[in-house]
Amino acid sequence: MHLDIITPDKKVYNGEATSVTLPGTDGQFQVLNRHAPLVSTLSKGDVVVDNAGVKHTYTIDGGVVEVLNNKVLVLAEAVL
Predict the structure, then answer these.
(1) Rounded mean pLDDT of 64-77?
(2) 27: CB partners within 8 A, 6+ apart
(3) Shortest CA distance to 36 belongs to which of 76, 71, 75, 74?
(4) How far is CA 21 from CA 9, 10, 17, 39, in A?
(5) How far apart are CA 68 and CA 66, in angstroms?
(6) Is the Cβ–Cβ distance between 31 and 50 less than 8 Å?
(7) Domain of 47: which CATH number?
(8) pLDDT given for residue 61 in this prediction
(9) Domain count, the chain
(10) Are residues 30 and 22 in contact, defined by beta-carbon separation less than 8 angstroms?
């Protein structure tokens, strides 16, 4: 699936991902390939991007996520 992590200042990540773990306001959740459409708010925490076993972690200060048509868009308030 394609993932974009964007802040008001810059695009932090733009590329493919096998899975994305996100800090939802009601708890942590994971998005996998071909996930159902979803919109959720995010709290402060870690976004873990797994791309074929290589993991990258970005700490965000809240935001929202949209999952649609095998694309994940994270609009983060800031990356710490």
Answers:
(1) 97
(2) none
(3) 71
(4) 22, 21, 11, 14
(5) 6
(6) no
(7) 2.60.15.10
(8) 95
(9) 1
(10) yes
Of the two residues 78 and 42, the one the predictor is more confident about is: 42
**Pair of tokens at residue 1:** 């699936």
Q: What is the pLDDT at residue 43?
A: 97
Burial class for 35, CB neighbours closer than 10 Å (0-12, 13-18, 19+): middle
Range of the domain at 17: 2-76
Beta carbons of 80 and 60 less than 8 angstroms apart: yes
Quote the strand ranges of 1-80, DSSP E.
Answer: 2-6, 11-16, 19-24, 27-32, 38-51, 54-68, 71-76
Q: What is the mean pLDDT of residues 21-43?
A: 96
pLDDT level of residue 80 (50, 70, 90 thresholds): confident
